[in-house]
Amino acid sequence: MDNTFEPKNIIVTGGCGFIGSNFVRWVAENHPETHITVLDKLTYAGNPKNIAGLPDAQVELVVGDICDGELLDRIVPGHDAIVHYAAESHNDNSILDPEPFVQTNVMGTYRLLQAVRKFDVRYHHVSTDEVYGDLALGEPRRFEPGDPYRSSSPYSSTKASSDLLVRAWERTYGLRATISNCSNNYGPYQHVEKFIPRQVTNILCGIRPKLYGTGENVRDWIHTEDHSRAVWDILTKGTIGETYLIGANGERSNIDVLREILSLMGQPQDAFDWVRDRPGHDRRYAIDPTKLEEELGWRPLHKDFSEGLAQTIEWYRTHESWWRPAKEATEAKYAAQGQ
Length: 339
Ligand code: NAD
Ligand code: DAU
Prior knowledge:
Layout: E1 9-13, H1 18-30, E2 35-40, E3 59-63, H2 69-75, E4 81-84, H3 91-96, H4 99-119, E5 122-128, H5 154-173, E6 177-182, E7 185-186, H6 195-205, E8 210-212, E9 218-220, E10 222-223, H7 224-237, E11 243-246, E12 251-253, H8 254-264, E13 273-275, H9 290-296, H10 305-318, H11 320-336
Parallel strand pairs: 1-2, 1-4, 2-3, 4-5, 5-6, 6-11, 7-10, 8-13
Antiparallel strand pairs: 9-12
The chain binds nicotinamide-adenine-dinucleotide (NAD) and 2'deoxy-thymidine-5'-diphospho-alpha-D-glucose.
Residues 13-14, 16-20, 40-43, 45-46, 65-67, 85-89, 104, 108, 126, 128, 159, 182, 184-185, 191 line the site of nicotinamide-adenine-dinucleotide.
InterPro entries: dTDP_Gluc_deHydtase (IPR005888), NAD(P)-bd_dom (IPR016040), NAD(P)-bd_dom_sf (IPR036291)
GO molecular function: dTDP-glucose 4,6-dehydratase activity
EC number: 4.2.1.46
């Protein structure tokens, strides 16, 4: 049976953030038949410049909070799907102040699910591999869709909670919902608080990069464009009620990524500082993307991490006016916590 879904009018929550805006730009370019309403609160992480220049007739920005049920009642009718990216997304922030994470990630998802129920629209929930906790360094195992939830940080626990709400609403109320759990994204428009942009912009500012703990922690890097393509495939071809894991076989230790940045930017290999480790720091994430590949035929296009990293460095080098306004305050916050 052909269960292809052809969305004509979607809401993208968090569409002014890093991954959400890359998705909006990708859909605008590749699916001009689809209208996009971006719903974004424009927190410190949201920037309307991320979607500037897209056609007004195709992309509309509504500034608002996903926790605002009345707003959802006004804007959801007339749309055929919601793709939910909006979140408080940074682990270090969640350790300092978990409350906005509980509010946006849990309550916000709850409000969206109630609106999805009320107006019977399709729903795709964007989540993280961190819901599965971490893996030991060096073990061959990778995360699989049926793995138990073992989240360890306040951030990942709120994301795990939101995933469980989606599963419950799908089973109990028959919502037409899918979930994806993706590994670490890199690419343009990522906030300077995150690992790769922080180190790149530090070097551009003459500040030494900062490595947490031993630097041995492993992340599984995927270019954000490949994440966007996967989310579109799941939205349009995925099976209702299913969870898909998104990853591009990009496992690397933090110290290896940092050394690659240093070398691409012409810096000595030891030109960085070791800093205080993140409390509860997850050791290793790794995704087994077999289900996504076999069921939906998705494959990553950005297979060469070094090339993608070089392009990302170049993007930050040529977009200083984009990242500069957030840099000083971000570094001051890190310095206050010894990082
Ligand atoms: P981000 O922090 O860059 O962007 C979050 C966006 O959500 C911002 O535009 C912000 O203004 C908006 N937002 C926050 N609270 C809101 C609210 N209450 N109402 C409306 N809008 C609100 O985040 P990101 O890194 O782009 O992550 C996007 C999504 O992808 C998140 O759900 C995250 O858990 C998930 N994810 C991220 C990664 C990663 O590597 N960054 C990997 C897997 C999954
Ligand atoms: O795995 C998916 C997750 O990836 C997403 O759900 C999160 O939203 C996203 O922020 C990301 O989480 P991480 O905690 O893995 O990303 P972050 O960029 O904060 O850190 C990546 C690694 O680098 C992590 O092991 C901590 C380390 N680190 C980070 C910073 C900011 C450093 O060593 N130095 C730093 O300065």
